[in-house]
Amino acid sequence: MRNGGDGDEAEVSASSRAIVDLIADSAVRAGAAAAERYELLDRLRVIAAEETGAAWTAPDDLAWRDLRAEVAAALRIGERAAHTQLDLARRLVHDFPRTLAALRVGDLPEIHARALVHESDGLSAPSLEPYEDQMLRASGLGITRFERLAQRVRASLEPEALIERHREAVQERRVGLEAAPDGMAWYGALLPAEQAVGAAAAVTGLARALKVEGETRTLSQLEADVFRDLIIDAAGVVPPFLPGAAVVPSPAARRPSRGAAPGARSDGDGSR
Fold first, then answer.
1. Which 3 state secondary structure label does DSSP give 178?
2. Taken in order 27, 32, 38, 44, is the CA torsion positive or negative?
3. pTM
4. Can you tell me the distance from the alpha carbon of 113 to that of 99, in angstroms, rounded to the nearest whole number?
5. Are 204 and 220 within 8 A, CB to CB?
């Protein structure tokens, strides 16, 4: 059995450094490839605009949909993602050429370039250059801190843009359903932050009130059950509520309340 000494440790250390160097080199090459892809995407967009009239300002037109489908097939992504790639390429090439150059030489990771572009939404043309200046100087930050800085820089340059962005975002409020593994699914809503925080606090408060002696569900399980019951079993009645129709107590409303005698049922009007 060979005794590991300083020589072995030095050999392993040198090998590790070599691998780290290779990883860093691969990241630079990936950035260069990404920059080339964005340049090609924008060149394709310009050609399509000249030949077919495809315009990013008219995303529902047939010409743009054809371009989007062509890009989606080439990149093996969905058409929505292809639209995002085309828009990102346009903005990098025309609005943020220095960011594209930094990506090309490995000075800025692709994820940072995407964040820089995304967080600039709503800024006027004169603010784009000072925004890019400050963000490129912060290229060494982790992505989370980089995104937060971008939001602060954007707000400092044009405070009124932040208000307008919120107004526009409120118009995009919606609910969403997303499949999850093992027969589960996520269901939620995109809401103004203060409303979402208030809703979460209400659900947690009701769940904590149910966490009494003998309750075996965890707080997380109780929160999920409260959320479900508030939507499906709201007011203890079965939706839909048809005008003139009799109110039908929900199954949960018909269950005995905690502490009721065995066999007891709630009243037929849905009260517990």
1. strand
2. negative
3. 0.63
4. 6
5. no
Chain-centre distance of CA 265, in angstroms? Answer: 45
Quote the CA–CA distance of 30 and 23 in Å, as a whole number.
10
Indicate the residue type of 187. Y
Instruction: Determine phi and psi for 188, rounding to 5 degrees.
Output: -165, -175
User: Within 10 A of 237 (CB to CB), how many other CB atoms are there?
Assistant: 16
Residues 6+ apart with CB under 8 A from 196: 189
Q: One digit per residue, pLDDT tens: the chain, 272 residues? A: 455 556 666 666 778 888 998 999 999 999 999 999 999 999 999 999 999 999 999 999 999 999 999 999 999 999 999 999 999 999 999 999 999 999 999 999 999 999 999 999 889 999 999 999 999 999 999 999 999 999 999 999 998 877 877 888 898 899 888 898 999 999 999 999 999 999 999 888 888 888 888 889 899 998 898 888 888 876 555 555 566 666 555 555 555 544 444 444 444 444 43
Contact call for residues 157 and 130 (beta carbons, < 8 A): yes
Which letter, b or e, does each residue of 64-88 get, where b requires 16 or more Cβ atoms within 10 Å of its Cβ?
A: beebbeebbeeeeeeeeebbebbbb
Which residue is it, tokens 């003139």? Answer: 244
Token look-up 């517990």 returns 272
**Torsion from C-alpha of 150, 155, 161, 167, nearest 10 degrees:** 90
Count of residues in the chain? 272
CB 54 within 8 A of CB 63: yes
Q: Are 61 and 69 in contact (CB under 8 A)?
A: no
